[in-house]
């Protein structure tokens, strides 16, 4: 069954680039690139269960890379929209989303790390207030690692229909990308830890770094009651911080 799922996902991954090229509009490119990132995360999970951890790690990295691209691209789009003179609904939406995207992109793991500038300091922004009140019935409360990893078919209409960029600047669409990025970082940390364990290494510092980043993003942007936050938190506590107070202090400093 795992091999069958893997073959299907591998086939899908080969089709998405052509799908993106077939519709070069900004909205469709963003939508299909998000599908591509999700496929890589799901393929990572399948490969990991087959003990193919090197391949799984590569696909988790691809997912994170595509999500980085999406978030940076949306940030540039909102900044460009804010410079336009005409006040439109899209510009109004960009005005609300812009500070959130700036905060998200500032917390991504850079591909080429740079030394932090100690002179620059910025005030803390309450992301939960910017995103708005989260009610118990909100869809964001249903985010969990299982729903992200679960394979579900897309209708042909979903793939080929015209798409408005405004949908990608909504609260729900942005939270969906954040949850997917948390899952991608989490998968990278798992595969790095398993590979280090296979190699006989006792140090899991790199794996812990990615896991801590996943926990940071989850706690900072998603409701603490979300099952995804709980899952990442408990996994971090189990693997890296057996003393619960360490994590509590870590989350408090983030918030």
Question: What is the ordering of alpha helices and beta strands?
Answer: HHHHHHHHHHHH
First-residue to last-residue Cα separation: 42 Å
Which word captures the global form? Answer: globular
Beta fraction: under 5%
Per DSSP E runs of 2 or more residues, the count of β-strands stands at 0
- How many helices? 12
Poorly predicted tracts of residues? 113-121
Helix fraction by DSSP (H/I, runs of at least 4):
over 70%
Q: What is the mean pLDDT?
A: 80
- Helix/strand structural class: mainly alpha
**Largest sheet features:** none
Number of domains: 1
What do these coordinates show?
The protein is an all-alpha fold and 255 residues long. It has one domain. It is built from 12 helices and no strands. The chain has helices spanning 2-22, 26-49, 53-82, 89-106, 127-131, 145-149, 156-160, 165-168, 171-198, 205-221, 227-239, 244-254. Helix 1 (2-22) runs antiparallel to helix 2 and helix 9 packs antiparallel against helix 10 (205-221). The chain starts with a helix and ends with a helix.
